[in-house]
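Sample pair:
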Amino acid sequence: MDVKNILIWCVIGLIAGWLASLVLGGGGLVRYLITGLVGAFVGGFLFNLAGININVGNAFVNQIIVAAIGAIVVVLVARVLA
């Protein structure tokens, strides 16, 4: 992995975490990043498992949507377990 890919993942994670916080509440830059990055993996896994393919015309936006949905799932599961 090169630096560019890592930065892109971080940007996607930040945006996805921020979107999840808009839906569920919460905040903080580090929390956005962690929630978004974990959400990206969870969202990708869930969407692949369900056979769902989101295509809004832009690969970057597709990744953000999947990561944001995954981040929402992660936050909801964490709240249920806490």
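The helical segments are 3-24, 29-50, 59-81.
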